[in-house]
Amino acid sequence: MNNALDSRLSLTFNIGFDEKGDLKFQTRNFQNVKPSASDAEVYQTAIALSSLTKFELDKVERHNMYELNA
């Protein structure tokens, strides 16, 4: 059985352009997300957090850590 140990939320923002005209991105990580939280709940939290910044949200990622038992 797989046992969720931990979960992390990563938000990547488009913060503008560099001197060459390429897009620049910045990622913010949030640790200790409840492993039992649904993906929809985590996504809604990401949207709420992104509304507090002036930058455009580009990507939302959830990283889960599991203990694998044979």
TrEMBL record:
It comes from the Bacteria. InterPro entries: DUF1659 (IPR012454). Pfam families: DUF1659. Residues 3-69 form the DUF1659 domain. This is DUF1659 domain-containing protein. It comes from Salipaludibacillus neizhouensis.
